[in-house]
């Protein structure tokens, strides 16, 4: 398996020390008190790659229900970027980009990351290449995530493949409002898949997949100060890749195996457990810690602070890759493992 396909497989299959400090995990910034989220949604499912069977759709972003972006690498270039207008999914059009990540700040400001160290930007009317940042001796880039606090502080994280050895090395790029720059050297054998920072956190958190010859690949959490990163421990799990980082109402949450943790002021504490539940996913998407969604063995589950209830049934061997939660709409991108058919699930709060 070549390095590009290896990283794509990792991206799909993913479905320094910080003390786990004792504090009241129910205390939230600004003294907020969260109430259980509603569960009365209507649902609809859409096919994504029926006309592009070799495209793998893995990321979704949007700011309004009628303007949702979905990206997928490989296959047909005229269908790697899709748009959902609330009723239909249509391809944006042919571009010389193989996108692996998407993130934005408004309907008129959306970033896309390609596999040739290229960054593209949507300005409200067109998508165009913003810049390219090739690294000497490296052939392919694979950005696992784009995320930022505002349009003057955006990060793109992932990895690059060495053109001669095939070695995978981590990359982190930063946009300051004018230019993208590489801020670390491509030295560590890590493919970063997430970067987040809560409103109370003094530093960023990363999640990365460590890739080394003859060693079991594992996912790790990292702390990042904007220049350097170091590995941190958040809980314990026997599954080396069952981890995720998410933001809910500006607060950072970690999942490690079946356990969920919460960061306030950079201090991490256990929040809740999904042991003895039907939860099978490790990624969460939601509004608050009492109103978020997670994959279950039967479909899309919802946690309301007390329990997980399945809200949408999916028949077959499936995986949920990414999600998006707006005020009254929720979206999930997934696929069936036996057929590699990709789908979009849209839920509307009643």
Radius of gyration of CA atoms, rounded to a whole number: 19 Å
Give the termini distance in whole angstroms: 46 Å
**Quantity of strands, as a count:** 28
Please, what is the CATH homologous superfamily? YVTN repeat-like/Quinoprotein amine dehydrogenase
- Shape descriptor reads globular
| Named CATH topology | Methylamine Dehydrogenase, Chain H
Most strands sheet: 4 strands, antiparallel
Strand content: over 45%
Count of discrete alpha- or pi-helical segments spanning 4 or more residues: 1
- Given as residue ranges, the uncertain stretches (5+ residues, pLDDT < 50) are 12-24
The CATH class designation is Mainly Beta
Number of domains: 1
CATH architecture: 7 Propeller
Helical content, roughly? under 10%
Major sheet strand order: 1-28-27-26
Structural class, by secondary structure, is mainly beta
The ordered string of helix (H) and strand (E) elements is: HEEEEEEEEEEEEEEEEEEEEEEEEEEEE
- Tell me, rounded to a whole number, the average pLDDT: 91
Quick structural gist:
The chain has one helix and 28 strands. The chain is mainly beta.
Observed structural traits:
four-stranded antiparallel β-sheet, mainly beta, 28 strands, Methylamine Dehydrogenase, Chain H, single chain, 350 residues
Could you describe the 3D structure shown?
The protein is built from one helix and 28 strands. By secondary structure, the protein is mainly β. The relative contact order is 0.16. The strands form seven sheets. It has a four-stranded antiparallel beta sheet, with no helix packed on it. A four-stranded antiparallel beta sheet has the order 2-3-4-5, with no helix packed on it. It has a single domain (3-349), classed as Methylamine Dehydrogenase, Chain H. A hairpin with a 4-residue loop joins strand 8 and strand 9. It has one helix at residues 3-13, and strands at residues 41-47, 56-64, 67-73, 81-84, 89-91, 101-106, 109-113, 118-122, 127-132, 138-150, 153-162, 168-175, 180-182, 190-196, 204-210, 218-224, 229-232, 243-248, 251-256, 259-264, 267-273, 279-288, 291-296, 299-303, 308-313, 318-325, 329-336, 341-349. 3% of the residues lie in helices and 54% in strands. Mean pLDDT is 91; it is low at 12-24.
């Amino acid at each position: 398996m070549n390095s590009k396909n290896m990283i794509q497989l990792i991206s799909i299959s993913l479905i320094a020390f910080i003390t786990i400090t004792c504090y009241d995990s129910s205390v939230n910034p600004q003294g907020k008190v969260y109430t259980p989220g509603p569960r009365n949604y209507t649902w609809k499912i859409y096919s994504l790659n029926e006309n592009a069977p070799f495209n793998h759709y893995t990321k979704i972003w949007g700011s309004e229900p009628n303007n949702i972006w979905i990206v997928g690498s490989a296959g047909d270039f005229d269908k790697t970027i899709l748009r959902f207008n609330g009723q239909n999914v249509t391809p944006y059009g042919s571009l010389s980009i193989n996108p692996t990540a998407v993130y934005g700040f408004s309907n008129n400001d959306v970033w896309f990351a390609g596999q040739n160290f290229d960054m593209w930007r949507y300005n409200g009317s067109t998508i165009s290449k913003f810049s390219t940042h090739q690294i000497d001796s490296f052939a392919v880039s694979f950005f696992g995530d784009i995320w930022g606090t505002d349009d003057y502080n955006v990060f793109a994280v992932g990895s690059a493949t060495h053109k001669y050895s095939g070695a995978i090395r981590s990359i982190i790029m930063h946009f300051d409002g004018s230019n993208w720059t590489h801020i670390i050297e491509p030295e560590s054998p890590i493919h970063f898949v997430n970067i987040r920072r809560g409103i109370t956190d003094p530093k960023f958190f990363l999640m990365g997949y460590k890739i080394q010859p003859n060693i079991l690949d594992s996912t790790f959490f990292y702390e990042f100060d904007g220049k350097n990163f170091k590995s941190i421990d958040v809980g314990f799990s026997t599954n080396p890749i069952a981890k995720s980082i998410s933001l809910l109402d500006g607060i950072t949450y970690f999942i490690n195996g079946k356990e969920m943790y919460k960061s306030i002021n950079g201090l991490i504490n256990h929040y809740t457990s999904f042991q003895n539940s039907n939860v099978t996913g490790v990624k969460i998407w939601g509004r608050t810690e009492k109103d978020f969604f997670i994959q279950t063995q039967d479909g899309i589950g919802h946690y309301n602070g007390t329990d997980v209830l399945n809200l949408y049934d999916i028949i077959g061997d499936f995986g949920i890759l990414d999600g998006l939660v707006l005020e009254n709409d929720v979206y999930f991108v997934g696929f069936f493992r036996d057929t590699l058919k990709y789908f979009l699930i849209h839920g509307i709060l009643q």
